Amino acid sequence: MIKFTERQLQVPRFMRPVYLVTGGQSQYARAFPEKRTEELCIDALTMAAEFIGMSPAELKGYLHTCYYGHFADHFGDQLLGEAVIHDRLGLDPLGNIGVKTGGATGGSAIWEAAKAVASGYSDCALAMGWERMDEVPTDEGNNYIACAADKDWETPLGHIYTGYYATMAQRYWQVFGKSQDSFRRTMAEISVKNHGYARWNPFAQGPMDITVEDVLKSAVVAYPLRVLDCCLMSVGAACVIVAEEDTAFKMCKNPLRLYVAAGSHSLRVADRRDMEIPLLPNETPEQYKDLDQAFPGGHRYPGFTGFLAARMSAWYAYRMAGVKDPTEDLDFVELHDAFTISDIQTYEDIGIRPYGRGREYVESGDCYLVNPHTHKQGRLPANLSGGLIGCMHAVGATGIMQVVECALHLWNRHAEIHGNPRLWKTFGKQKPKNWVDLQVPNARRALAISHAGVGSHVTCTILMHPDHLLKEE
Amino acid sequence: MSNQAKVWVEKKAYKIKGEFSTLEPNTPIRRKDGKLCGVTNPRRLVHMHSYGGEAPFFAGLAKRKLLGTQCVNGKCEYQGSIYIPFRIFCPDCLAKMKIVDLTAKAKKTARIYSYIVTSRTGAFNTLKTPIRFIDVEFDGVTTILKSYQLAGEPEIGQRVIPVFRAKPTFTITDLAWVKADTKKPPKGFRF
Asked: Which of A93, A410, A419, B125 has a CA 20 to 30 Å removed from the CA of A327?
């Protein structure tokens, strides 16, 4: 569709409020040769239980339905992997379903669980995601990932997803980045920031103390993208528990309000037709009148430079939650930084900056916890977990990890978990002596974007402290 | 190769001949100290895949034709829209579309919308590296076709013309592109 009816633009509504009660995650790594997937899932569920002072059995006693995010059955060579995990978690005979939306699988699992609670079907639901990407060599893994493109029209072309994704990056780089060295350095800065934040996250797979020069000297994957511009390939699991109000307050003292919406666009970027830009609450048509003058070649929307699915997920979610301006209304975000350049594209799709001006979010220092230019708190810190570049991309778990990380800040318990020396030791790591507490001060509201491939599915999850809602209900 | 898997259709059913599933012995995966961690699961298998209503496109490549589709439903708001990749049904009205020959249009108007050059590939890749992935725009066509370039270094806006594999594989790799002023087709391809 390139035009929408009023019905299609109906603001999604939950029939009753949905709360996030708790969440947990496993360690993330490139491979776990001595752990089965269920061990990672049980690690995540156990953490979620302990976080609210329950035993796993007590927590399980609240669950009514389960929503499992596991994208790539073929990586683990196990169809119906959801049934295996459900059994190993000891949750039979509760109803459960598997969700598969590529990189957005984690966010989509939360979307499904939230709708189950909102509709009244369940008072309490589990969203659990995981991925097992270590059972094949990297080139076979690349082929499997390429199977998430169109099998007749794209996959035979190199069997490499980079070939389908990076042409979008190239177009953005040339049109909006104007192939400038300064833009390239801004891209690299995102990698430095996210790998750097990962150093203080015990769960993270890719902590690194690197410089912009290190990124610019790393091996080329597909110009202008280099190895350090790209996300990690990971194994791990994460989960959240959502519940209706009474149940949520029985389970914990301070559940968070949760809103989530989804958007989509064609699997083949080839099929994306020119259309008008659906405007977010903080945008005006005038903003984009001269887009082609400021950025020659930028006229076609979404072309290869925008992600309509991300825009629509934010379009719906902002209206659900009462967000008028993400930078003003939110305190921090976790974005799907699959690549440094797609991170910049996402700033524009969700209204942090207008089209073509995403780089300013990084260059202004707004995206940091402490703005390196002003040395004050950044206006909207991004990916304090390390994101997909520094923390992990265990596909089915990624969108859930982001929401767990957001919640830790809103509960003001980020340091309690990330700074726990026992947790570092459990993961076979030593807590850094210069460990930095990344807790966002007075955090009230946060957003997480979960994004699939070239933008076929995107979810936008917004968490709010119940005392700081933006919309009267 | 004498026992290569072969498939044909007879009386609306697949008929098969040859080897479709080959199991090789598995081996243990151990730690250096000998502790067992798991096993390998090697095997070869063959899938049978229908092109369905898109078959004319892949058959067309073997005849050096680039076929797209056009919505001809007079009641559709977007009647006349032309699509390549070939779509069987109009994405707006869901009417079956008409097949149109875009070969001449491609030769006259095709240009690169975006591109990427990469030497990284996945398992089972058949294209020579580095691969020059290109996305091709045509005048009057509503979509952009993903493909690859065999002659000339790609640039955004560059005019390109199609070339077709001389011995077709009946896959999308039978179609490639070269810079518009290329005089001789790449080895194994024809204009």
From this structure: A419
